[in-house]
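Continuing from the previous page of notes. For each protein in this section, the sequence appears first, followed by its structure tokens. Read the first protein now.
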Amino acid sequence: MSYDHDKFKRLRNNFQKYDGQYIIGHALEKLRSGNDPNLMKKWNGWLPWHLMMIIRWTHQYGEAGGNLPQFTEANLRDFYNQVHDLKTDIHFDGIAQGQVVDEFFRRTIWFQLPYQMRMYELGASFGRQLILFVDLGEKYNLSELFRGVTGLTVLEFLECHFGMWAVFELDPNARWIDYRNSQLIPVDQWERFFRYLGKNYLQSRDFIRKHVSGPITERLGIEFQLHEHTPFERYPIYMVEDRPHIAYQRLSLVCMDCGILKRPPIYSAP
């Protein structure tokens, strides 16, 4: 599996021509228009995984501030098409040319299904996580391991996730979580939750540049980045002036679906 390096280089250089915060702002607006998992037509041709690839590479290669040209929706469409072309040009080893079904599963269905998750499907996921990490996890002191990294017990973490789910259920177009008026979950618990799960622009850029990407990843893994889920499934909340902003509801739901499994403390448990 290999990619067209010249195409990628042109796209990477384009990210440096505009203010990264405006690129991300435009991409997030398009993501929000596709919150309904039952109606792919509402995506209007803007596939969420391509848009999240743009956000990831903006953090990795983009600039911030300065006298940079204005970024428009036409520019976003151009970036989107370049990401799409870069991905579709990749040929999978072991799949004969023209094997449309195999390529569909590798290129599309792997991304599509998680972002078409129904709200009610999260009930089974929460139940699994409660049994595995609260009931069974008590034997291994898992909640204390978890608290040492996140500042929250496993149960507190799941409670906040459930509270976020309730916000989405009540308002499918919600953009902010007004946790300060919460009557069921203490404000300090919410603050610890967002402190761990949320990142502002600079923190997101640091996360991508230091912990996800880098020279080795770029040299060996561009084709794999195009075919893996976004790393922002681990941190789906965008902090704007210390307010938790819902970057994309579908991304938050994917995080809830297997949130505990993607947290570092699990890997060190007995």
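Done with the first. The second protein uses the same format. Note its length before scrolling.
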Amino acid sequence: MRSPLRNRRVRIAVLLLVAVLALAALMGPRLVQRYHARAFTPVMQRYIAAAVAGDSAALETLSAGHEPVRWALGMRRREPALLELAARGMQPEMLGSMGSGLERLRFRFRHPFAAPGCAYPYDGIYAAFRTSGGSWRLVQAGIGPC
């Protein structure tokens, strides 16, 4: 006859194993997305640094078109404090992949940015990237609606 204590230990061990597997199944995709999003952080950091400095040449090398350059220089004129906040650090978050190798991300600010005249604070910068010549380049950058 088996000891009731041993049966209880086996049941607890099985329950813990099931709980760990369930947690891994739930958190796994999110961890993979976070890991994948980290690849875009150095590009975005250089883009924000170039925007803060007003360096259009550096912005052009990091962009796959004129729109991200115009947006960054426009934000430098209109809301330089937003770019300064972004330069202090952002947390990347994958939003999804689109066709033809386009990746969409949101770079969350560490603290929300309250713009004058806006009902809600901005929480980050939205960006789309495409690989070009072996490196990621910005196709689009922006913030949410006011």
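What the second structure shows: The mean pLDDT is 83. The radius of gyration is 22 Å. We return to this in next week's lecture.
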